[in-house]
Amino acid sequence: MITFKCTKCAHEYKVAEEYGGRKVRCKNCSTVNVVPKPDTSGCGDSLARYNSLLQELLEYEKHAPTYEVESK
Question: How much of the chain, in percent, has pLDDT values that exceed 70?
Fold first, then answer.
């Protein structure tokens, strides 16, 4: 979903990603707005990005120095 606000009256809209780049008319004030295109940077979907970051963290953990903690 893409969330955006009307440039004139600030009415908030949520539309499907397929509407990105299209012109739409505000139901409140009749101003024509262009729906922002969806953000496609990064891995594409959040689950894939999460898994990628998790794998990176696990690699860092393998090479991290170990410390011994004394217990009381």
Answer: 90
